[in-house]
Design a protein that fits this description.
561 residues, alpha/beta, seven-stranded mixed β-sheet, 20 helices, 37% helix, binds ligand DPX, binds magnesium ion
Length: 561
């Protein structure tokens, strides 16, 4: 049996669990798209532009584990590259495919449209090489299967996007049949290093007086959340999560003490973590944003850092130690010690009294967070866009089982609209998406709401209209932080046109918000966009504190020498 190059690729995508792929057509990928349409287990999802296509792949990969996107050469690829770089930063496997020039164009010295006007066609491949874990151009049929399989293998093994460029005159040609072979490779394991790391870590933690555990963002891409929970319950320690790891440990768990974010940690949490005499961080990233401008007091003499594939203990490092194996094995060596949790219990903040809704009270960010918290259910996912939505999203208490998504490593505003599309598609019928999106971010990618309408997805979008770039205002204000206001709620009518089922409303009081949420929860067949009127200076207190610290780091004078 033979298969065409395009249907070989389609079969592979199906084999790794993809059911939808995102595409914007162009004459370099039309024949390839025809091949994909032949596969009835894959659904074509057309996006308004390639940047949003990339963000949709990001959101889909967060829910589904891996995603695929298809663009045309240069005008498509160079538009998508920012989203693919973001997926690299966020450890998301994406099979990203661009149509490429006809294989004869180079040898016959043919200038082509959509290119730089010179006969040199490798520039897109070189650019993607920088933001993917593997990049290859397929210009000969005989090496297509190997390059496709290698790309998929690398994406799944390293949890990173990969890039394939397929010459437009090859996609519909026959290939040798597709052997069903193992595509995902296990993480390398050094048994001796694993045992030594467990031995050393167990000794340090079992001899500590008040050790704590902190969950990091890499727990999820390296499938170690279950083992982290096991370790937590084997130790009885206080457990915190870093801001971009929210949702990776159940927040109603008796050992959960909140978000550890240095000076903007949740009440009591920072104190307990920083006063511990040993802390195990599992899968952490210590960036300027996750440490509030490096003001988090993390002492390397007390730090046990378990990364995706290596463990770092004070004065010792162990390589080829997979995170889930390390955490799981360590759990079996731990003694119970609830000293840090007992310390936290002494000042655990009393649950906040639920304030009654004051119908005609103007909206306050703090009150909006409380109202969103109340509507969340375990079968929802909360997506927080870059902006004050980070702080508001992170402060939102999650019911057990509710998922949380944030792009704190890359922080490219506008990401959340495409990510909402991709995530909602992957989780259709299983999880409803609730998104917190600022007005400034929304203006970069708003048109993808029409794709959400086109495919009848029903996320609930809270559009926080505070008249500008408030994060930037708090870090460093200037006239550039002002934006032109839109009628955000009215956009829904624009995108609905004659057949859409989106619903939009603008609210400015607590009573209006309450009624809008009730209506959104009942609204199906399309998105609900609730535009919130928020005062320009009404932001979370954490943003104020965090902003001044990040600004201090940004402004640090160049070191001499
Ligand atoms: C302009 C910028 N960051 C710089 C930036 C600029 N361009 C891209 C693609 N990504 C970025 N992070 C940021 S965080 C704005 O405050 C976002 O504004 P908005 O969505 O309105 O949220 P807040 O009002 O809560 O800040
Ligand atoms: Mg704003």
């Amino acid at each position: 049996a033979t298969t065409t190059l395009g249907s070989y690729l389609a079969t592979r995508l199906e084999q790794i669990g993809i059911r939808h792929y995102f595409a914007v057509p162009g004459d370099y990928n039309l024949v390839l798209l025809d091949q994909l349409l032949e596969n009835e287990n894959l659904e074509f999802i057309g996006c308004c532009n390639e940047l949003n296509l990339g963000y949709a792949c990001d959101g889909y990969a967060r829910a589904n584990g891996v995603a695929a996107g298809f663009v045309t050469f240069s005008v498509g690829g160079l538009s998508a590259i920012n989203a693919i770089a973001g997926a690299y930063a966020e450890d998301l496997p994406i099979i990203f495919v661009s149509g490429g020039p006809n294989t004869n164009a180079g040898p016959e010295n043919r200038p082509l449209h959509h290119t730089l006007g010179e006969v040199r066609y490798r520039y897109q491949l070189e650019m993607f090489r920088e933001v993917t874990a593997y990049a290859a151009s397929i210009e000969h049929l005989e090496d297509a299967p190997e390059k496709i399989d290698r790309a998929i293998h690398v994406a799944l093994r390293h949890r990173k996007p990969v890039y394939l460029e397929i010459a437009c005159n090859l996609a519909g040609l026959d290939l040798p049949a597709a052997p069903n072979q193992q595509l995902a490779a296990p993480v390398p394991l050094d048994e001796a290093a694993l045992d030594a790391a467990v031995e050393n870590a167990a000794e340090r933690l079992n001899n500590a007086v008040k050790p704590v555990l902190v969950a990091g963002v890499k727990l999820r891409p390296w499938d170690a959340t279950k083992e982290f929970l096991e370790l937590a319950e084997a130790t009885g320690y206080a457990v915190a999560v870093m801001p971009n790891a929210k949702g990776l440990f159940p927040e109603n768990h008796p050992q959960y003490i909140g978000t550890y974010w240095g000076p903007v940690s949740s009440p009591g949490c920072g104190e307990v973590v920083e006063s511990a005499d040993a802390y195990l961080f599992a899968g952490p990233t210590f960036t300027d944003y996750t440490t509030a401008g490096y003001t988090a007091l993390i002492n390397s003499n007390k730090l046990l850092e378990a990364g995706p594939e290596r463990v770092k203990l004070p004065g010792q490092s162990y390589n080829n130690v997979p995170l889930p194996l390390f955490l799981g094995k360590l759990a079996g060596r731990m003694k119970k010690n609830d000293t840090s949790l007992t310390a936290f219990e002494r000042f655990r903040p009393a649950p906040e009294q639920e304030e009654d809704i004051v119908a005609d009270r103007p909206l306050l960010t703090r009150r909006v967070v409380k109202r969103v918290e109340k509507m969340l259910t375990p079968d929802m996912a909360l997506i927080a866009e870059t902006g004050d939505s980070w702080f508001n999203g992170i402060k939102t208490k999650l019911p057990e089982g509710t998922a949380f998504e944030i792009q704190m490593q890359y922080g490219s505003i506008g990401w959340s609209v495409g990510a909402t599309l991709g995530y909602a598609l992957a989780e259709r019928g299983k999880r409803r998406v609730v998104s917190l999106i600022g007005d400034g971010s929304f203006q970069l990618t708003a048109q993808e709401v029409s794709t959400i309408i086109r495919y009848g997805l029903d996320p609930i979008i809270f559009l926080i209209n505070n008249r500008g770039y408030t994060i930037e205002v708090e870090i460093h204000d200037g006239p550039y932080n002002l934006i032109k206001n839109w009628d955000y709620a009215g956009l829904i009518d624009v995108f609905n046109a004659e057949d859409g089922k989106g619903w939009g409303v603008r609210v400015s009081t607590e009573g209006e918000l309450d009624a809008a949420i009730a209506k959104a929860l009942a609204h199906t067949g399309g998105p609900s966009l609730i535009e919130l009127t928020i005062d320009r200076d009404d932001c979370s207190k954490e943003l104020l504190e965090w902003g001044s610290r990040v600004a201090a780091v940004n402004g640090a004078p160049p070191k001499l020498g």
